Amino acid sequence: PITGGGTCMTTDMITVNPVAPPGNPNFGGADVTICRGDTAPMGTPAEAGFSYTWAPGNYLPDNHVAEPIFTPGSLSLPNPDPILYYVTAEKEGCTFTDEVLAYVIEADAWIDGCGPRYIGVGDNTPDIAETYEWVKISGPATFTGPTDQARTTVSESLGSNSVFELRTTFNGVTCTDQVIVTPPCECNVDV
């Protein structure tokens, strides 16, 4: 103890070891766009000393790797779509975060059948600004509706089948699907 008005002093030493971030500041990689039913790698190669976690872990078979495979399946579109992923790189207790958007688009020309009729099911991904293009592949039927929408109309296909293809494009990725319009529907009724 100090007496007579003196002061007390305590000293301590702290060592700070700075941790450098990953060499690639975009270690989450580029945003990905795939067609429904496809898969895509995400991220960039692991850097020594870092561990990685992707959140949410939805549609990633392993979310504790630097380069997971985005696997949303083929039965339905993911929810939400697009999905915002956060990838965290951790080293010596320090964390660094990056973001990646994953988009799933689809071309759904609908079921085969006779015309005149609608083809296509409409826009199932309203939060994605994809473009649509309908192309006639073969046959006598013609478009009677717009060719730049997810759903349109076609005439009857007199004499033979007509094939139409829907092309859905976003971020340089194009998905396709075809539909067959058969000769006119007939009622076979005996009187």
Overall description:
- By secondary structure, the protein is mainly beta.
- The protein contains no helices and twelve strands.
- It has strands at residues 32-35, 40-41, 51-55, 69-70, 83-91, 94-105, 113-114, 117-119, 131-138, 152-154, 162-170, 173-182.
- The strands form four sheets. It has a four-stranded mixed β-sheet, with no helix packed on it.
- The chain is rod-shaped, with a radius of gyration of 28 Å.
- 24% of the residues are buried.
- The mean pLDDT is 93.
Number of beta-strand segments: 12
Tell me the Rg in angstroms. Answer: 28 Å
Strand-residue proportion: 35-45%
Model regions low in confidence, pLDDT < 50 over at least 5 residues: none
Q: What share of residues is helical?
A: under 10%
Structural class: mainly beta
Concise description?
With 191 residues, the protein is mostly beta strands. It has no helices and twelve strands. A four-stranded mixed beta sheet has the order 1-6-5-3, with no helix packed on it.
